[in-house]
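TODO from last week: model Cellular nucleic acid-binding protein.
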Amino acid sequence: MRNGETEFVSIANMEVSTDVHVEEVRVVQLFQDIFPSEIPGFPPVREVEFFIDLHPGTGPIS
């Protein structure tokens, strides 16, 4: 806050849950007429079958 410069402070909190139920997913809630009433669950986690070529010396942005 010297010399009239603007300063920003950001505080964030994120909780990650692995116990997600399909009916809690927002897209499923918004389009209930499209999704069947009984969904067995999410598809199984699979290995990544593709990759993106990067320029030498660069890394992915996440």
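Done. The chain has a mean pLDDT of 81.
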